[in-house]
Design a protein that fits this description.
This protein starts with a strand and ends with a helix. The protein is an alpha/beta fold and about 220 residues long. About 50% of the residues lie in helices and about 15% in strands. A hairpin with a 5-residue loop joins β3 and β4. Bound molecules: 2'-deoxycytidine-5'-monophosphate. The site of 2'-deoxycytidine-5'-monophosphate has 14 residues, from α2, α4 and α8. 2'-deoxycytidine-5'-monophosphate (DC) binds next to α2, α4 and α8.
């Protein structure tokens, strides 16, 4: 099976890119951030202390996460059978996802879910540690990034479109903190794999990012 890893910080356009590539290539698309977000939502809704590894670990025993895909390729994520796809996109869940993702027990819990998908079909997986931890042997690794302002502008537009009451300054502060925490944590930090190809799309449209990534993928897969 072919594995394409797309890692990078929040707001770099990983999900948009991975989704359009999967439509073009016919691969299964997996947004792994949604898995961490689902766990975070469960912890928030059940008032689990996000600083307490023991309580988080105990709560994981009560969580079952599954994914499926709508006809247009949109990924849906379920926690104990309930579709939480829309609920996991709030700013509160974003920050909580970053916090829970730093616990090794949470990362271990999601490891097999991610690896098992790639046993059944070709995948394009986006996240933070796909090229470094989940699939160190991925056929193609892309690290997508953009300047803080560009990423915050994209995230702000997304949240406003969804009706969330936020200011640009708050989005910029949150995104900067989340990326600092994600990239400096002890386990599976969000860093580029040594063999990843970097794309800085600060000044790119989504179409330009797509064209660049497709060129990279086609050249890598042809070489194999
Ligand atoms: O990609 P996202 O913004 O939906 O991810 C939410 C959080 O989940 C992010 O701040 C860090 C964490 N995450 C992770 O640690 N590893 C992944 N593969 C994906 C996300």
């Amino acid at each position: 099976m072919i594995k394409i890893a797309i890692d990078g910080p929040s707001g770099s356009g990983k999900s948009t890119l991975a989704k359009s590539l999967s439509a073009k290539l016919g691969f299964t698309y997996v947004d792994t951030g949604a898995l961490y977000r689902s766990i975070a939502l469960y912890m928030l809704e059940n008032k689990i202390d996000l600083t307490d590894a023991g309580k988080i670990s105990a709560a994981l025993a009560d969580i079952s996460i599954s994914l499926d895909y709508a006809a247009d390729g949109t990924q849906h994520v379920y926690v104990n059978g309930t579709d939480v796809t829309a609920k996991i996109r709030s700013s509160e869940v974003s920050m909580a996802a970053s916090r829970v993702s730093a616990f090794p027990v949470v990362r271990d819990f999601l490891l097999d879910t991610q690896r098992n998908i790639a046993k059944k079909s070709n995948v394009i997986m986006d996240g933070r540690d796909i090229g470094t931890v989940i699939f160190p042997d991925a056929d193609v690794k892309i690290f997508l990034t953009a300047g803080n302002n560009s990423r915050a502008e994209r995230r702000y537009a997304e949240l406003i479109a969804k009706g969330e009451n936020v200011t640009f300054e708050k989005v910029l502060t949150d995104i900067t903190k989340r990326d600092h925490d994600d990239s400096s944590r002890a386990v599976a930090p969000a860093v580029a794999a040594p063999d990843a190809i970097l794309i800085d799309n600060s000044d790119f449209t989504p179409e330009m990012t797509f064209a660049k990534a497709l060129e990279i993928i086609e050249s890598k897969i042809r070489l194999k």
